[in-house]
Amino acid sequence: MSPDARPWQVQDRFLELHSRWMTLLGEHWQDAQGQRLEYWRIEKADSVIVLPLQANAQGQPQLLLPPASFRPGVGQVTLDLPGGRCPAGQRPEQAAIAILHRELGLDAAAIARLTPLNPEGWAVNSSFSNQKLYGFVAHLEGGTPPPPASTAIAYPATATGVRQLLNQLTCLQCRAVLLEWRACL
Predict the structure, then answer these.
(1) Cα dihedral sign for 175, 180, 183, 185?
(2) Is the four-CA dihedral 6, 12, 18, 77 of positive or negative sign?
(3) Tens-digit pLDDT profile for residues 79-107
(4) Is residue 127 scored above 70 in pLDDT?
(5) Number of domains, the chain
(6) Is residue 100 part of a domain?
(7) 29 DSSP β-pair partners
């Protein structure tokens, strides 16, 4: 930042609407040149996405996903990694365990190791939305029976399987977690 650049300042907040998962804010800001601007933004609860890995019957690692479901935001059925919001006061690790239980029926005892891909969370920040995204890899116990096909879809945890899955995923957050995991291998 140059020494003569002044930071933007909030002049007033004319709307603040809270719900459990988000806050809608309307504000007037003054930019570095003194111009008054109207900004609308949403602050959301942080997101958690989990990449569950489990060996198949042949001992090869596979990625488990819940069945495709309807997403009101995009108006269609989509395939997504297990994920959701992190409630206030809950650690992302706790949310990851709850998500695996809700979406795949897996108990905490089924998780051999839960590894964060980004312990600080990635900023999902635009002029309209602010939140953090936490990605986890859940290595499932070898003796845990895989969820039934009605509960989970399996993709090979190989370069080909990841390419196939990337062709199916429309959620950018899911794609980011999957690509980060592949880059770490």
Answers:
(1) negative
(2) negative
(3) 999 999 999 899 999 999 999 999 999 99
(4) no
(5) 2
(6) yes
(7) 10, 37
